[in-house]
Amino acid sequence: MPRIAGVDIPSDKPIGISLSYIYGVGRANAKVILKELGIDVQRRAKDLTEDELAKIIGVLDRSYLVEGALRRQVQQNVAQTGDVL
What we know:
Helix content: 55-70%
Strand order of the largest sheet: 1-2
Structural class: mainly alpha
Radius of gyration: 15 Å
Oligomer: single chain
Number of helices: 4
Order of helices and strands: EEHHHH
């Protein structure tokens, strides 16, 4: 099972679907990421090479706010608006 951004993504599903298991990455973002890297959306996650996984991780780290950092930001935003209301 490949691990990206601290999440074990399903290996038997297409990578376009598997990436959506990461908080902050939906199907649309997954397609954009994979198109940018030239990876077929229908390839199974288990069939990706270590190099391809590293490229996906690099794009997520560089361009997207995902998992823990996104959850913290959302929590902070909720806390701020809670003070105003």
